[in-house]
Amino acid sequence: MAKVLLENLTKVFDGKITAINNLTLDVADGEFMVIVGPSGCGKTTTLRIIAGLEEPTSGTVAIGDKIVNNIPPKDRDVDMVFQNYALYPHMTVFQNMAFAIKLRKYPQDEIKRRTDETADLLGIKDLLGRRPKTLSGGQRQRVALGRAIVRSPKVFLFDEPLSNLDAGVRTATRTELKALHHKLKTTSIYVTHDQAEAMTLGDKICVLHKGVVQQVASPQDVYNKPANAFVAGFFGTPAMNLLDGLIHYRGDNVYFIAGTDTILLPAWMKALLAAYKNQRAVLGIRPENILSQPIPGQNENAITCTVTAAEALGDRTNVYLKSRSDKKLTTTAGSYTNVRPAQEITMYFNVEKAYIFEPGEMGRNITTVT
């Protein structure tokens, strides 16, 4: 095992397309780091640079205490699990898993021992004589994982390895992968665009957008203390409500004015927002914190809305609303709700769970004290 340190990494393609921009990331020995972000944010490019499959335009990659920029991929002691499995179709499962250590001239008994132990760990020992075309997607992914584990590398690199699996298999494999990491404790860097994978797998999450690191933190802090409006909106299903408006002080109170709607903010926000008096800002509030019943001490924050749609999902219902000032909102209700499109209802903001961000897509979180 080994730590991985990326310092000031930049990658520019064709002299004009910046895939990653001055990225610095410290992955501790034995840590499971998830790099997450929308398509095109630079996730896979970062992983390929660590593996040695791409050269950075500038910056350094260190594995353990050694900078590896000039070390070829085969000598970096990392192994990469790809989205498309990358199995040899003409080889059996055993041959696929053993291929890398066979190339390294391991003794035959050591090859068999490692392969058998890994197959047993992954629950695929009965598949060792079969070829990839006879396996399901989930079984192929286990073989791809096994091929990496057999080598016992210092670092595992995962490039969206579950994205080709059906939803049920993906969830089961995600759970198995988490349990596997607890057993092996190998430093792992996992790339995904799926927020659920990031939240459930990562010891820490690195959020990337347009090649720039937005936040590196625990899953809980990324969700509860988002660094900016982008991170806040990226995590959560449904996404956080983000309302444009104005910070307004009146008497001893501070308000957020969104069109014709006025929201009284908590007293603890007064000092944090003092520098933003009468300035534009964004209020963020998660759907579960917009309620259909009054909140003790917050009855002033009643907003009249019209239901535009209701989406029943079994365990909950997502309700889509529009306020009188034409602001779009989403809230969640229980399994059974009798709301209907065009119905007018009153909603209450739990502002103790709200955030205020500076304007713009990456507007800084003003109200979360770290």
How big a fraction of the residues is strand?
Answer: 25-35%
Q: What is the CATH class designation of the largest domain?
A: Alpha Beta
Structural class: alpha+beta
| DSSP summary, beta strand count | 20
Report on this model:
The protein is an alpha+beta fold. The chain folds into two domains: 4-233, P-loop containing nucleotide triphosphate hydrolases (Rossmann fold, 3-Layer(aba) Sandwich); 239-357, Nucleic acid-binding proteins (OB fold (Dihydrolipoamide Acetyltransferase, E2P)). It is 25% helix and 33% strand. It has nine helices and 20 strands. The chain has helices at residues 43-51, 93-103, 108-122, 137-151, 167-184, 195-201, 219-224, 229-234, 270-273; strands at residues 4-13, 17-27, 32-36, 58-63, 66-67, 78-81, 155-159, 187-192, 204-209, 212-217, 241-250, 253-258, 261-264, 280-285, 290-291, 302-312, 317-323, 328-333, 344-349, 355-357. The strands form four sheets. It has a six-stranded mixed β-sheet, with helices on both faces. Strand 7 (155-159), helix 5 and strand 8 (187-192) form a beta-alpha-beta unit. Helix 2 (93-103) crosses helix 3, helix 2 (93-103) runs parallel beside helix 4 (137-151) and helix 3 crosses helix 4 (137-151). The longest helix is centred in the middle third of the chain and has 18 residues, at 167-184. It is elongated, with a radius of gyration of 25 Å. The model has no long low-confidence stretch (mean pLDDT 93).
Short account of what is shown:
The protein has two domains: 4-233, P-loop containing nucleotide triphosphate hydrolases (Rossmann fold), CATH 3.40.50; 239-357, OB fold (Dihydrolipoamide Acetyltransferase, E2P), CATH 2.40.50. Helix content is 25%, strand content 33%.
